[in-house]
C-alpha cells in the first residue's frame, strides 16, 4: 500500500498532467475539431482522453494487458508525450501573444477573439512536422570523434582506441533492431576497448527479445574487452541484478564499484550508479576507497553514468571519465535545463589533468524523438605520453 506522501505526489502528477492535456484538447476543439461536421464533442473528448493518457495507462496496466496491446499502447503514448510537449509550447506561446496583444495591438480584434480552423490546422501541421523530424533524427545516430591526451605512460601502449556508448534504453520502444545497428557501427570502428556508460536497458528488460539481444552483444569485438556500468534506469525498473547477470552472460563485464587493470598498461574503473542508494538502500563506494591500491602512474579511465560532482574524480587523479545520462536534453529546449544542472551535459570538458566526455546517448527514453541533439556512438582516440 502506498504511503500518504506517495499518494499526494501521484495525485498531483495526475492532476497537472490531466490539466495540461485538457488545455491542449480544449484549444484543439475550439480552433479546429469543432469545425468538423461529423465530429461531436461526445466522440472527441473520449478519444482525446484515451490518447493523452495512453502512456500512463500502459505503465499501470502492463501486468494485466496482452503483450501486443501493452506495447502498442506504450508506443502510442510515448509519441503522444512528444506531441503534447510541442503542442503545449506552441499553443501557450500563441495564447501569451494574444494576452500581451492587449497592449501591443498587433492582432485584429476579430482574429483575437476567434480561434479559427486555419490557425488550428497550421499548429497541427507545424507540430507534426517537428515530431516527424525528431523521429527521423532519433533513428539516425552518428559517430562523434574525440582526440584525448593523457600525460602518463601506459606500458608499451602509445595510444588506445575506445568506443563508448551510453543510454541505449533497450526495451519496449528501443528494440533489437536498434541494437543491431549500434553493434555494426561499433565494430566498423575496430576499437581496442568498448565501454557502455549506463542505461543499457530501460525499465522493462522482459520486453526485449533476450536471445537476439544476447547474440548481438556477443558480436562485439575488442582486444581489451567490453565493459559496462549500470545507470539509473536499471535500478528504476528493479532489474539491476538481472541486467548484470544478463550482460555478463552476453560477454559484457559490468563493473560495480570495481576496477580492472588491463594489460599492465591502464585501469578501467566503473562506479555503481548513484540511483542504487535510492532504490535498493545500498550506498555506492566513495571514489577514494575505490582508488586504494591503484598505481597512480598508470592512466585511469572511469565510467560513471551520471556526470555529477566532478570535483571528486578530478581530485582523486582520474584521467578520463566517460558518462551519459543527460541525453543532451533529448527534446528541445530541455537542453537549457540540463546545461544548468550539469557542469557538462554533452561533449568534452578539460579540468587540468582531468577530462570528461559526456555522451548524448544512443537511444531515447519516453518519446522516441530527438530534437536539438543527435544520437551518437562516441569514438575516442587516447594518446599517452
From TrEMBL:
Keyword Membrane attached: yes
Keywords: Membrane, Transmembrane, Transmembrane helix
Keyword Membrane attributed: yes
Record field: transmembrane: 6-24, 36-57, 77-97, 118-136
Cross-referenced SUPFAM superfamilies: Metallo-dependent phosphatases
A GO molecular-function descriptor: hydrolase activity
Calcineurin-like phosphoesterase domain residues: 161-328
Protein name as it appears in the record: Metallophosphoesterase
Biological source species: Desulfosporosinus fructosivorans
Amino acid at each position: 500500500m502506498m504511503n500518504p506522501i506517495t499518494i499526494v505526489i501521484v495525485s498531483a502528477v495526475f492532476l497537472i498532467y490531466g490539466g495540461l492535456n485538457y488545455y491542449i484538447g480544449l484549444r484543439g476543439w475550439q480552433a479546429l475539431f469543432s469545425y468538423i461536421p461529423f465530429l461531436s464533442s461526445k466522440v472527441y473528448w473520449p478519444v482525446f482522453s484515451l490518447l493523452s493518457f495512453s502512456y500512463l495507462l500502459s505503465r499501470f496496466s502492463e501486468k494485466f494487458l496482452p503483450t501486443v496491446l501493452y506495447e502498442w499502447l506504450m508506443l502510442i503514448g510515448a509519441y503522444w508525450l512528444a506531441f503534447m510537449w510541442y503542442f503545449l509550447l506552441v499553443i501557450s506561446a500563441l495564447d501569451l501573444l494574444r494576452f500581451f496583444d492587449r497592449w501591443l495591438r498587433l492582432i485584429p480584434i476579430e482574429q483575437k477573439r476567434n480561434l479559427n480552423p486555419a490557425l488550428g490546422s497550421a499548429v497541427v501541421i507545424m507540430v507534426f512536422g517537428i515530431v516527424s523530424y525528431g523521429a527521423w533524427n532519433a533513428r539516425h545516430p552518428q559517430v562523434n570523434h574525440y582526440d584525448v591526451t593523457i600525460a602518463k605512460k601506459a606500458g608499451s601502449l602509445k595510444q588506445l582506441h575506445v568506443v563508448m556508448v551510453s543510454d541505449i534504453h533497450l526495451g519496449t520502444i528501443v528494440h533489437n533492431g536498434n541494437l543491431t545497428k549500434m553493434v555494426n557501427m561499433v565494430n566498423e570502428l575496430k576499437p581496442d576497448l568498448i565501454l557502455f556508460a549506463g542505461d543499457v536497458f530501460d525499465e522493462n528488460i522482459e520486453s526485449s527479445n533476450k536471445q537476439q539481444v544476447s547474440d548481438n552483444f556477443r558480436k562485439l569485438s575488442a582486444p581489451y574487452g567490453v565493459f559496462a556500468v549500470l545507470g539509473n534506469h536499471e535500478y528504476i525498473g528493479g532489474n539491476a541484478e538481472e541486467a548484470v547477470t544478463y550482460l555478463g552472460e552476453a560477454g559484457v563485464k559490468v563493473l560495480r564499484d570495481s576496477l580492472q587493470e588491463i594489460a599492465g598498461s591502464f585501469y578501467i574503473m566503473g562506479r555503481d550508479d548513484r540511483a542504487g542508494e535510492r532504490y535498493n538502500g545500498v550506498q555506492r563506494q566513495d571514489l577514494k576507497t575505490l582508488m586504494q591500491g591503484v598505481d597512480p602512474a598508470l592512466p585511469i579511465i572511469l565510467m560513471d553514468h551520471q556526470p555529477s560532482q566532478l570535483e571528486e574524480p578530478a581530485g582523486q587523479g582520474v584521467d578520463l571519465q566517460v558518462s551519459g545520462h543527460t541525453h543532451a536534453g533529448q527534446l528541445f529546449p530541455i537542453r537549457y535545463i540540463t546545461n544548468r544542472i550539469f557542469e557538462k551535459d554533452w561533449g568534452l570538458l578539460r579540468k587540468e589533468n582531468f577530462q570528461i566526455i559526456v555522451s548524448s546517448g544512443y537511444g531515447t527514453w519516453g518519446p522516441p524523438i530527438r530534437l536539438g541533439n543527435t544520437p551518437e556512438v562516441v569514438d575516442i582516440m587516447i594518446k599517452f605520453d
